[in-house]
Structures are given as structure tokens and as C-alpha cells.
């Protein structure tokens, strides 16, 4: 900027009270942020919907100070832990209390980000005066989008994503593995049990060169070589008159994992209706429907050796040396999936499928039971 000589400049900063006027939802009421004395963190629905994820809990990561959001494991649809100001108990649960549109729920993992109007995290200890001991670890209050009067409007949102294994370990091929087994057996002598094992599984040591022409089973590619296409779509319709308003949102998402046969599919339906019965009486109806389908063994069921087996099994014949599958009927895909299932033979192989259906309905009446009285002062007659 060029210097101004001989002139007096007056610079005035414009006031911006937008943050102070932001409305925060508490236990029994809503207040402006400027009137709050406790510690409350808020995230608007616009910021949450801008994150291309399928869960509102994941969208909270890094949005509020003092709130930690972590996943239990890397499986699609894995449980998400939210900690408000860290854990305070060693033996008891450190989960906060979740309130969604007045309902107490177990978690917010299956709430679509596009349905959320705001998320308020109440971190102050004084909030236990409203929610009791359950609010000792904090309270996460989720408010979904409400019905508004006006012309019927339809909106559509969608996003696509893909995932892949970021880094693979460099393992031996069939020829290198056979040569390694030969050298290991030779160090123990030609009459040792190791030498007998080599001849039984790899043949005559003079025929090692034939392994250069044999295929190599890369179990990392077989088990974790998926490059899935994940998607999430949302359709919202809303509108109505001054006396009757409604909004309906349908969200469908599919999140597949890089491990063969893993994934989660969700369908969410959220309906909000507000009917003004009288001037002082309004009926709110808010049914919610959630359908979830998990595929695969899941991270909790794989075990500590499930993924390690991908690295230690032979590139020459995989699981066939254990006798679980007849070599004449062996298929690399089935053998790879058998690794994940911890060598449990299930023929035909069937993915574990679990379904969770949740239906919530809230009837909320706002009104007054007292009649309005008007007192008019009149002069006394003499």
C-alpha cells in the first residue's frame, strides 16, 4: 500500500454480532450465545453437510474445541467414540449423553449430515442440573431441520468417493519363497525334519527353477485389494402453509471397505410435521426410520491374527497346505475370504448380515391452558 502524505485517515471497524446472535439449544430452551455463561460448542448444519461423509459423528471431527472424535477400528460403519474434555472414568463409560430432537439415543453414528440443522455440545458441569448424572460426561444435542412454511421445495444432494490401500508391504514371490525355504532347510541338514517338510511341500530341490513360471498369490491384493466406489444420496422435500408445515428427507448411503466382503449400507427416513391446531396449540410429529445392513465379519470378529495371516501365508499355495479346501476346488477369492473368517470353513461362504431398524416418534404439544383475561377499569357509579 502506498503511503499517504498530508492526509488524515479515519478507519472504523464494522460491528459483526452474528456469532453473538447465534441460537444455542439447551435442555429446556434455546438462548442466544451472548446470554450464555457456560461452556458450549456449536456447529451449524451447513458446515456439517459440507463434509463428504455418511455419519454426523464423523463430521464433528475437528469442529469443536475439547471434543475428541475417534473410530473404534477401520471397518466401514465402525462405532465412533466421542469424548468431551477427555475421559474421566477408568471403569465406567465415558460416552456423553446424546439427545436428538428431544430423544435420548445411544449414538449419532447413523444420522445423515444433510438432515442436521445444528449440533450443540454442552461441556459445562452445570448441565447436570438439567440432564442429571447422565450429563456428567457432556451432552451432545442434535437438532434436525424443521418444517417451514412456503412453496414446496425439493433438493437433491449426492457425493461419490473411493478408497484403496495406501501402502503395500513388499513380499516374496513364489520363486523367492521357495528358494528361502530351501536355504532354511539346507542349514538344518538333509536328514532333518525341515528337509523332509521341504521335499513334501516344494518337491525336489533341483526343480526350484520351475517356481519362476508359477503364479504368485499376493494375499494383500486378494484380501485388501478392493477399490470400492462409495456413495451417498439425499432427497429432501418440504413446504406447507402457515398452519401446516412438513419436511421429509430420504438418505441412502453405501460404504464399502477395502477388505473383501466388508461394507455397510444405510437407509434413513426423517419426517417432521407441524400442525397449528389452535392459536396456542401446535402438534409436532417427528417419526424417524433407520435401516442398516452390515456385511463381512467386522473388525471385532476378525481377531488379532486375521490380517497378519495375509502377510505370513505362502505365496505358492496359500491355505491349501492346511487341508481346509481341496486343491482341485480351491479358489483364490474364497481362500482370501477364509483368511478373514479366521480359517472357519463355511461352504458356501456367506457374509454375516446384521440389520438394525430404529423407529422413533415424538409428539410435542405447545400450548397454554389459561384463557387470556382483559381487565378494563371503569369509574364507579355514585
UniProtKB/TrEMBL annotation:
Keywords: Cell outer membrane, Membrane, Signal, Transmembrane, Transmembrane beta strand, Transport. This is Outer membrane protein. One of its GO terms (molecular function) is siderophore uptake transmembrane transporter activity. One of its GO terms (cellular component) is cell outer membrane. Transmembrane segments: none annotated. InterPro entries: Plug_dom, Plug_dom_sf, TonB-dep_OMP_SusC/RagA_CS, TonB-dep_rcpt-like. Residues 34-139 form the TonB-dependent receptor plug domain. It holds the Pfam family Plug. Belongs to the TonB-dependent receptor family.
Amino acid at each position: 500500500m502506498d503511503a499517504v502524505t498530508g492526509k488524515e485517515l479515519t478507519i472504523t471497524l464494522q460491528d459483526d454480532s452474528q456469532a453473538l446472535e447465534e441460537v444455542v439449544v439447551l435442555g429446556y430452551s434455546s438462548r442466544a450465545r451472548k446470554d450464555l455463561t457456560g461452556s458450549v460448542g456449536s456447529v451449524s448444519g451447513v458446515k456439517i453437510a459440507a463434509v463428504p461423509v455418511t455419519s454426523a459423528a464423523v463430521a464433528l471431527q475437528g469442529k469443536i474445541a475439547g471434543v475428541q472424535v475417534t473410530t473404534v477400528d477401520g471397518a466401514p460403519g465402525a462405532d465412533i467414540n466421542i469424548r468431551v474434555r477427555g475421559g474421566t472414568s477408568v471403569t465406567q463409560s465415558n460416552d456423553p449423553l446424546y439427545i436428538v430432537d428431544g430423544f435420548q439415543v445411544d449414538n449419532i453414528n447413523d444420522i445423515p449430515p444433510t438432515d442436521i440443522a445444528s449440533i450443540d455440545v454442552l461441556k459445562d458441569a452445570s448441565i447436570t442440573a438439567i440432564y442429571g448424572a447422565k450429563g456428567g460426561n457432556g451432552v451432545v444435542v442434535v437438532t434436525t431441520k424443521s418444517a417451514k412454511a412456503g412453496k414446496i421445495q425439493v433438493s437433491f444432494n449426492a457425493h461419490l468417493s473411493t478408497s484403496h490401500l495406501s501402502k503395500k508391504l513388499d513380499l516374496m514371490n513364489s520363486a523367492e519363497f521357495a528358494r528361502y525355504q530351501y536355504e532354511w532347510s539346507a542349514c538344518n541338514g538333509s536328514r532333518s525334519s525341515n528337509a523332509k517338510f521341504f521335499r513334501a511341500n516344494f518337491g525336489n530341490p533341483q526343480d526350484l527353477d520351475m517356481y519362476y513360471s508359477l503364479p504368485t498369490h499376493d494375499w494383500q491384493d486378494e484380501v485388501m485389494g478392493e477399490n470400492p466406489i462409495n456413495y451417498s444420496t439425499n432427497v429432501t422435500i418440504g413446504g406447507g402453509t402457515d398452519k401446516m408445515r412438513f419436511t421429509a428427507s430420504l438418505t441412502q448411503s453405501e460404504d464399502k471397505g477395502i477388505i473383501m466382503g466388508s461394507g455397510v449400507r444405510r437407509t434413513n427416513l426423517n419426517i417432521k410435521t407441524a400442525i397449528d391446531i389452535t392459536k396456542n396449540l401446535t402438534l409436532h410429529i417427528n417419526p424417524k426410520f433407520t435401516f442398516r445392513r452390515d456385511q463381512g465379519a467386522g473388525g471385532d470378529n476378525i481377531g488379532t491374527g486375521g490380517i497378519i495371516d495375509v502377510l505370513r501365508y505362502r505365496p505358492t499355495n496359500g491355505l491349501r497346505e492346511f487341508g481346509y479346501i481341496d486343491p482341485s476346488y480351491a479358489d483364490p477369492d474364497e481362500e482370501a475370504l477364509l483368511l478373514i473368517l479366521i480359517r472357519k470353513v463355511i461352504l458356501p461362504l456367506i457374509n454375516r448380515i446384521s440389520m438394525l431398524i430404529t423407529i422413533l416418534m415424538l409428539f410435542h404439544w405447545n400450548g397454554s391452558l389459561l384463557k387470556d383475561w382483559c381487565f378494563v377499569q371503569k369509574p364507579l357509579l355514585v
